[in-house]
Amino acid sequence: MSRQVWKGSTLLNPEPPVLVSCGPAGAPNLITVGWCGTICTQPSMVSISVRPERYSHHLIKESGEFVINLPTESLVRAVDWCGVKSGRDVDKFSAMHLTSSPAAKVGTVLVEESPVNLECKVTQVIPLGSHDLFLAEVVAVDVDDRLLDESGKLCLNKANLIVYSHGDYLALGRKLGSFGYSVRKKPRKK
To answer: How far apart are CA 134 and CA 163, in angstroms?
Structure first.
């Protein structure tokens, strides 16, 4: 296989684009964040990276709280729009016809149209260069009842979540396997 070697870049793709709600409940803002990830299981922790000049940066830094709202295929236009418009100039909830609902454990709001919302409290802010990394503990997860099966198991595949890859928003595709499938013993035939 022939390869080219390029300079270092952020080509770790696909990634989950998320709508982050932040700011006071009476005047909340939304920001689209492409650089978001899980960093720890116990305690449950995530990270988001935000440019210091973004309007949401100071809202998150001031309050120490935000909500990660997982977007679906039906929210893809709002995800894109909220990533290119500034909350300094426009009420993004109103402009995108999104519903803000009070979060259970943090002082900001969540996006009602999102089927899964991670309520987060910032534990550390690390300046890295173009972006600051917000490390946060997930203090609550709000899940739409429609994603639960009859036994209460979360069926996230029902949510129609999206990914972002090199400039494009994509729907998730077909299932290729489940965790541990490569080492599971096959049932014995009788």
So the answer is: 21
Q: What is the dihedral of CA 36, 22, 99, 33, to 10 degrees?
A: -20
Max Cα–Cα distance, the chain, nearest Å:
68
Strand, coil or helix: what is 166? coil
Distance CA 1, CA 51 (A): 37
Determine the straight-line distance between the first and last CA of the chain, rounded to whole angstroms: 45
CA distance 10 to 106: 31
DSSP letter at 98?
Answer: P
> pLDDT tens, position by position, for the chain (190 residues)?
899 999 988 888 899 999 999 999 999 999 999 999 999 999 999 999 999 999 999 999 999 999 999 999 999 999 999 999 999 999 999 999 999 999 999 999 999 999 999 999 999 999 999 999 999 999 999 999 999 999 999 999 999 999 999 899 999 888 888 888 888 887 777 7
Structure tokens at 27: 């005047």
Whole-model pTM: value is: 0.93
| Ramachandran assignment for 166, one of left (phi > 0), alpha (psi -120 to 50 degrees), beta (any other) | left
- Single-letter amino acid, residue 18: V
Tell me the CA distances in angstroms from 39 to 48, 131, 133, one per residue in order.
Answer: 10, 17, 12
- Whether the CB-CB separation of 107 and 149 falls below 8 Å is answered with no
